[in-house]
Amino acid sequence: MKRKLKGVAIGAGYFSKFQYEAWNRIPEVEITALCNSNLERAKGIMAQYGVKKHYTDYKEMILKEKPDFVDIITPPETHFEMCKFAADNGVHIICQKPLAPTYKASKQIVDYVSKTNVRFVVHENFRFQPWHREIKTMISNGVVGNLFNLNFRSRMGDGWGEDAYLARQPYFRDYKKLLIYETGVHFIDTFRYHAGEVKDVYALLKRLNPVIKGEDSGLMVLNFESGATAVWDANRYNENNFKTSRYTFGEYLIEGSKGSIRLYPDGKITLQELGKAEKEHKYVHHNIGFAGDCCYIFQRDFVDNLVADLPFETGGHNYLKTLKVQEAVYASADQKKPISII
Q: Contacts by 99-103 with C-beta closer than 8 Å and gap 24+?
């Protein structure tokens, strides 16, 4: 019988529960310890998800536990030192997004780890949502022909009022960059997954709620090397009318030379070939975990590729391409002109 992969985790914040829960469903993995400065919060995670040991010093945890990998679930400004220490000690790394506060700092992490024998992947889970996996298969199978338009509309509705974000992620209020840095980057990565590499971008960004520091509304236009165009029309201020607002995070239309694919807020996918009626495309998706269980799907993919020594989809160098587009989006909004991706 093969031994289990031994993992440790750093962090016990709001989103970490989705990751701890998903690890519990991957039989080849045991998370033996977690590191968090807040003991009471750590105890809650440990009791619920069966983590046996707690540390307040991540370096001590890595040295004592000698894990195969570390799951870093902490704020972006902490990532370089944590990744550096893990890499120096031969521990494979999953690092939560945002990877770092800037593209330059993100590249510094990737470049440092790349000089070691450590495997590195960014926990970017939106492309692992089951509908996006299925849509990718449909596109690859040519059901809508050559892509020319991808259009996603998001209204998250958690950012209005004096108490915006306080209940779930209060640190959002202090981000000088918010909508694209925290949310839009997911869609940049998903659009790249579906349509290939980005050639240039144009963006309009606004702040609707005066109690926060960053932008919470935007229109982002991506032009691809293939000739396709993607539009992300989003804000975190206005509300949607979806039964589960954080399932698909919006509505998606993909158009090509042979017809259209539509993603609905409940996860339903339809195909409408030219000259024919729209029909539902059957596939499997479940409303468990986060957004179609994408944390589990991502983590399952990490384990499979780590064991097989295969590339990660959101490995460091590939994810830097997403972050370069993100940087260009902000440059476009600041300069009020299209920005080429060089």
A: 99/319, 99/323, 100/76, 101/76, 101/77, 102/327, 103/320, 103/323, 103/324, 103/326, 103/327
Check residue 1 and give its pLDDT.
47
Burial class (CB in 10 A: 0-12, 13-18, 19+), 219: middle
pTM over 0.90: yes
Distance of alpha carbon 161 from alpha carbon 178, whole angstroms = 16
Cα-Cα-Cα-Cα dihedral of 224, 229, 235, 239, to 10°? Answer: -140
Taking only the tens place, the pLDDT of each residue in 58-70 is: 999 999 999 999 9
Q: Give the tens place of pLDDT for each residue, 188-211.
A: 999 999 999 999 999 999 999 999
- Which amino acid is present at 331? A
Three-state SS at 163: coil
User: What is the average pLDDT across 93-121?
Assistant: 97
Give the position of tokens 């944390």. Answer: 295
CA–CA distance, 239 with 156 (Å, rounded to integer): 6
User: Which residues, in sequence order, are CB contacts of 238 under 8 Å at separation 6+?
Assistant: 155, 157, 160
Mean pLDDT within 42-47 = 87
d(CA 211, CA 208): 9
